[in-house]
């Protein structure tokens, strides 16, 4: 058992993380097994959702998650499972729309009058030399 206070805290935190990670892994495994046992649109979306949650919590690498989701989609296609339209819409758009923040009106300064560019004096032509 650690003696230093910060080490004690790390033990507590790592134990909490281990419990959280094991719950995430267990739910992921059960969702994947449920999909393989009986492929349905509901179980397919649940499996994909659990894969995304595992990535978000750092349990699974994003590339592995992409590979697993691709395999799920291939299995769903061979089983003839099509995603429901409501699942696509729910994933594409958030359910609650936030009100747009009020725009602040800023007083604009009057535009400065443009000045004509200064004219350069014309170069004088050199007179031909006389012999």
User: H/E series, N to C?
Assistant: HHHH
Using the coordinates shown, work out and report the CATH topology of the domain at 5-91. Methane Monooxygenase Hydroxylase, Chain G, domain 1
What's the average pLDDT?
Answer: 83
Name of the level-1 CATH class of the domain at 5-91: Mainly Alpha
Sketch the major β-sheet. Answer: none
The total of beta strands comes to 0
Measured on Cα atoms, how large is the radius of gyration? Answer: 34 Å
- Straight-line distance between termini: 111 Å
The CATH superfamily of the domain at 5-91 is Ribosomal protein S20
Query: What is the beta-strand fraction?
Result: under 5%
Report helical residue fraction: 55-70%
**Helix/strand/pairing category:** mainly alpha
Assigned CATH architecture of the domain at 5-91: Up-down Bundle
Low-confidence stretches: none
Shape: elongated
Give a quick rundown of the structure.
This protein has four helices and no strands. The protein is an all-alpha fold and 131 residues long.
Question: What can you tell me about this protein's structure?
Answer:
With 131 residues, the protein is an all-alpha fold. It contains four helices and no strands. The N and C termini lie far apart (111 Å).
């Amino acid at each position: 058992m650690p003696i230093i206070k910060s080490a004690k805290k790390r033990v507590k935190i790592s134990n909490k993380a281990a419990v959280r990670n094991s719950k995430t892994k267990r739910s992921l495994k059960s969702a994947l097994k449920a999909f393989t046992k009986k492929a349905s649109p509901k179980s397919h979306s649940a499996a994909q959702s659990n894969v995304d949650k595992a990535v978000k919590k750092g349990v699974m690498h994003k590339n592995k998650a992409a590979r697993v989701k691709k395999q799920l989609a291939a299995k769903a296609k061979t089983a003839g499972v099509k995603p429901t339209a409501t699942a696509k819409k729910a994933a594409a758009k958030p359910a609650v729309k936030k009100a747009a923040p009020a725009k602040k009106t800023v007083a604009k300064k009057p535009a400065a009058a443009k000045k004509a560019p200064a004219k350069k004096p014309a170069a004088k032509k050199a007179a031909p030399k006389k012999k």
